[in-house]
Amino acid sequence: MCRVPAERSVLSVSSRREVRNTTQSRFPFSFVTIADCVKMARFSILLLSLAYSALTHANNAFISPPDYGNGGQSASKNTVYNVGDLINIAWNTTSSPVTLVINQLNSPATEIDYLPNSQSLTRGTFTWEVTIDGSDGGAKFDLLFDNQFNLMLFPSGQTSFVAQSVYFNITNSTVNQYGQRITSSSSSSTYSSTLSTSTTSSSSTTPTAAAATTATSPAQTSQAAQSGLSSSAQVGLGVGLGIGGVAVIAGILGYLFFRRRMAKVKAGGSKDEISPSPGYAVVPQQGVAEEKVNVSRMHYWRIPVPELWRDILQKVKAAGSKDGSLDFESGSRNFTGLFDIAKEVGLYILFRPGPYVNAEANAGGFPGWLTTGAYGTLRNNDTRYTNAWSPFFSEISQIVSKHQVTNGGNVFIYQIENEYGDQWTNVAARTPDYPAISYMELLEASARSNGINIPLIHNNPNMNTKSWSKDFSNQGGNVDVYAVDHYPSCWSCDLSECTGTNGDVPEFTTYDIYYTNFQEVSPTQPSFLAEFQGGSYNPWGGPAGGWNNVAQKVSGMNIYMSFGGTNWGSLPMPMIGTSYDYSAPISESRIISDKYHETKLFGQFLRIARDLTKVDRINNNTGYASTPEIYTTELRNPDTNGAFYVTVHTSSPSTDLTSFKLNISTSEGVFIIPQYANDIVLNGRESKIIVTDFSIGTQKIVYSTAEVLTVSVQGNLPIVVLWLPAGESGEFFLAGSSQGSVLKSDGCTGIAFKQVNGGVVVSYTQLNGSAVIEFDNHYRFVLVDRSTAYYTWMPSFSADPYTPENSTVIVQGPYLVRSAVNSENALQLTGDWSSSIEIEIFAPSSVQHVTFNGVDLSVRKTDYGSLIGQLGALSHSIDSIQSQLPSLNNWKINDGLPERDASYDDSKWTIANLNTTTNPTPPAIYPVLYGDEYGYHTGNILFRGRFEGSATGVHLAVIGGVNSGWSAYLNGILIGSWLGSSSITNAALDLSFSNTTLNSNSTNVLFIIQDNMGHDETSGATNPRGIYNATLLGGIGKFTSWKIAGNAGGEANIDPIRGTYNEGGLHAERLGWHLPGFDDSRWEESTPQEGLSTDGARFYRTVVPLDLPTSMDVSLGFVLSSPAGSTLRALFYVNGYQFGKYIPRIGNQVVFPVFPGILNYHGDNTIALSVWAQESSGASVSVSWTVLGAVESSFDLAFDSSYLRPGWKDRSQYY
User: Any transmembrane segments, and where (predicted)?
Assistant: First the structure.
């Protein structure tokens, strides 16, 4: 996520009343051929500073002399070929592909799969005949076009390939830029050809089409051909819409991508174009079959317990996602374990390595050492910056390359940079920004040369920048998929931050501009909202505590966030505090909320709405509904006629309850619906999708005014779950049936059947609970209210993210269902429950025995085919667990700020003696007193300056970021403090020495402690942290020396498990007082609630045991409180991790969740607290436990997490 500067982010909001009547707008996706993998999850690298072991990467393909076999011409550079020409090439290769490029300008993309021996394949309006001969008896080759019409080929699955001949018979017709067929002729169908290997990279920013293919071989070859045409060769990338999944506000989530199924040609010589999966169509040239991909995002580094990643990803999967979305940061841990977890759960990965990732992280994810100015202004082609990111980016690309779908892994998309919309200095004039273009080209070339052979994407910060789309320009730096970010209700709980981007509009205003933007900038690509709002971050001073883009054919949405996590240590940028809950569907404490359930409703619908994978936007206006208060968009699949009528209030901020009828067109005719039931109802800011001609099994739902939750096929017969809010009426028309019967009526009233031409219409009113209907074709419908739908789960037996309908069962009742295994007549379920509750299971009829979390579940079979059992009462309640937690009354105390005393021994501190700086903000005085210049980048930074002679005061200006604070002492006496401001980053005060005594005959010591709030993002990453000005006033005194201290070891990373971002320069941190095992036996006893009665700092420690129930997933936190008006800054530590920053004067966070694994649930825990009183009135802080959640669970929290909590070692050298 990015706070976009106002001067670059003005959006024009178009009227949603405007009719947008469009036709065929599906997206040919030329560069991708990934084997059945367009389901995403998103991983990003957070920090650059961490090293990776080097991986070998061979790239030694070379061209051998031509083979002139079979009468074809020798393929050579700069040779013109005509339709009907035969082209021969031959080569030796040990690993990398050799590329034959046949370039035709002004042509759209197309794709071709491999052809064994002499076979021909017609794809759209092209016929390509490929002949392969050689000693291997007929090798398989992959062929593919990118969207500059570059034909690429390479051996499929070969490790070596020597002296083979390949020649092409180019026949039939060409295609113009609109995908229309034109007659071929020798004059209109010439091709210029170049021959290259994958060892060359591009340096040109404005190449010609032909030159580009030669110069950018690594990037272009890999961007397309290396994307992995396998022998099962399916796919492409595409989109469907984006509202479902798990990270969404008001029920919107996911990133939806359409999947394109490429031609599958059998080795036996079949000329079949395709072998599609159910629900997918194949179209030539102007259209593609697309698959929605439902993605959820988390920052794994904000939950630094690897064993808990599985918990989050299982919840993501249960909400209907095909993909998990995570930002990566290596740290000292083996992050590649996440690939295995995601694959096991059934998720694919979109990997985002940066090198800049933003994410409200310190310096946007840049390491501290990069922020000094020594590497330039960053994010451009400055050689110094290039040399800084290249080792990281090369090695991480090599690591990830092993986990690509092309290598049997699950990473299928690779993002270059983040929110870097800098391709133009003037967008309207399309004036290129050449340093930015060069930077993107360098990153892309690095990725390709280090083994990344999957598609590259980039996300623009907003819709104004229009950067990096091949459809928009032929400038350099373009990626394979253009994308944008948007936060329609503000990325922050402080709405004023977003006025410059969103305009001064009412809350909950939605924007009907995505479709227009994508049609302008990237009409041949998926419409991808790479970040779409799923919540907001809570800034310092923020509160304590739906948009339906289907209508706009938004192809993909990464909802930010699904799980936010915690800004532990110094992870955050200055504007936000410890919590990164983000109002996400999965809370910071890992509890699932109503937002999660709303997200699940939509995510599960998108999973089975197969016709959404290829739709046209037919029309959108207020004329469909019986009232102009309702605005409708019609989407229709041109192959199946399946349609989706997306209804919202015309005024999106409306909270009205509006009833209406809807005009629809179906295969059975035109209807005004409902025909027999009460009207459709929209309640305020919700949206409903009315489906028509919705395929289920061999029949269709002609229409339904109730929303579809899921379809599960059992015994070759579908079970359909429809849902409505209790009290609303529903109506659906099932084709292919003549009558139905009510098997269970508890959850509905007024169920009526009306036989009509073509089927049966069912009308009813939904009550709390569920009803079951069976038709004469044995199709079953389960009708549920919203609250029942919330706790209806569809676990799959398969790890395939596609989640076939015949791989699922339906489970109603529990808090969460994590997995299902079906073996013969037994069903094994795992999950969580929060109270004694009935569980109902719709499973194959063969199932006779059920276990839940490994325990036999006694079940009975109902008349309508389900199994019903009972989950028992919880072994412990939240209250009982709370009562068993140990008291937090026995604390030890020590002075937390001895450095303020003039006699303090700072002989081990760093001498500050730099008299030059490369920082773009040079200080007002020298020596340089910026922490980053001396290797101190995080947390508190301490300074001691010595002077002799007279002075009456000092002018201090300290840069620490917004919300930062500092205190100054002269010879041990407080002379003043900056308490913090949400708008001032360089805090200046003139402080008097009147309350202290100068040493007229000896040295005076000025001590400053700064609370460094982290580095700014984007262009502000190089803003310094430290003293900008320290000038004595009213005398002749001059500073004679300065010393500086920060985190122990500086950049040395002496605690590789917790990492350098965990600690700052407090005395207690430098000596390791916050770590388990430190001996505090000689300390005095006191409590933070008693606090200190004057200025200064105190450090408190206590050790408490825990022994929580092993069968339960318990979420714990701590509550910090202090008297009103307190001017303090406190840091809270749990087993050595800084897990809370408490500044009550400027922030409202009082509850601080702490993850199991950081807390030892079955052993001793070291709890510590630093309390810094900035004024002479002193400070105190009360600390108490809180139990945030407790459920019986299959998720085992008894894992060995001791490795995460290394103990104290002697740190006296950092005194």
Answer: 235-258
User: Read out DSSP for 326-339?
Assistant: EE---TTS-TTHHH
- What does the buried/exposed string (b/e) look like for 146-184 if buried means 16 or more CB atoms within 10 Å of the residue's CB? bbbbbbbbbbbebeebeebbbbbbbebbbbeeebeeeeb
pTM beyond 0.85: no
Contacts of 388 (CB under 8 A, 6+ apart): 48, 370, 375
DSSP 72: P
Q: What's the Cα-to-Cα distance from 71 to each of 254, 602, 953, rounded to whole Å? A: 54, 59, 93
Q: What's the angle, vertex CA 1065, arms to CA 1062 and CA 1071, rounded to 5?
A: 85
- Residue 316: band (very low, low, confident or very high) from pLDDT cuts 50, 70, 90: confident
Identify whether the C-beta of residue 322 lies closer than 8 Å to the C-beta of residue 346: yes
Q: How many CB atoms lie within 10 A of CB 907?
A: 7
1005 φ, ψ (degrees, to nearest 5): -120, 120
pLDDT at res. 285: 21
Please check whether residue 249 is in contact with residue 50, taking contact to mean a CB–CB distance below 8 angstroms.
Answer: no
* pLDDT score recorded for residue 589: 96
Q: What is the CA radius of gyration of the chain?
A: 32
Residue of 531, 731, 805, 1017 with catalytic role: 531
Burial of 864 (0-12, 13-18, 19+ CB in 10 A): middle
**End-to-end CA distance of the chain, in Å?**
39
Task: Determine the Cα angle at 203 with ends 200 and 209, to 5°.
Answer: 80
Residue pLDDT, tens place only, 886-925 = 999 999 999 999 999 999 999 999 999 999 999 999 999 9
Which residues share a beta bridge with 740? 775
Is 838 tagged catalytic? no
Nearest by Cα to 458 from 403, 521, 398:
521
The two structure tokens encoding residue 872: 């028992």
**CB of 477 closer than 8 Å to CB of 488:** no
Is 1189:1165 a contact under the CB 8 Å cutoff?
A: no
Burial readout 619-643 (b: 16 or more C-beta within 10 A, e: otherwise): bbbeebbeeebbbbbbbbbbebebb
Q: How far is CA 963 from the centre of its chain?
A: 28
Residue 1011 pLDDT exceeds 60: yes
Q: Count CB-CB contacts under 10 A for residue 1003.
A: 12
One DSSP character per residue, 878-902 reads HHHHHHHSPPS---EEEES-GGGST
Tell me the DSSP string of 128-141: EEEEEESTTSS--E
Coil vs helix vs strand at 103: strand
Task: Quote the tokens at residue 756.
Answer: 């009509």
CB-based contact 330:301 (threshold 8 Å) = no
Phi, psi dihedral angles at 1153 (to 5 degrees): -65, 150
Residue 874 to residues 41, 59, 420, 829, Cα–Cα distance (Å) = 34, 59, 50, 18
Tokens at 196, concatenated = 């290259």
CA distances to 199, 373, 984, 1082, 1214 from 1098, rounded to whole Å, are: 61, 36, 27, 15, 19
Residue from 307, 395, 419, 840 carrying the catalytic annotation: 419
Q: Are 783 and 766 in contact (CB under 8 A)?
A: yes
Q: How does DSSP classify residue 1001?
A: T
Across the beta sheet with 141-145, the strand order is 111-112, 141-145, 151-155
Angstrom distance (rounded) from CA 1074 to CA 1133: 7
Residues in contact with 656: Cβ distance below 8 Å, sequence separation at least 6, in sequence order: 629, 649, 684
**Residue 508: predicted pLDDT:** 67
Tell me the three-class secondary structure of 337-350, residue by residue: HHHHHHHHHCCEEE
User: 419 catalytic, yes or no?
Assistant: yes
Give the span between the Cα atoms of 161 and 1102, in whole angstroms.
67
Q: Give the helix/strand (H/E) hosting 691.
A: strand 688-696
Phi then psi for 1101, rounded to 5 degrees? -135, 145
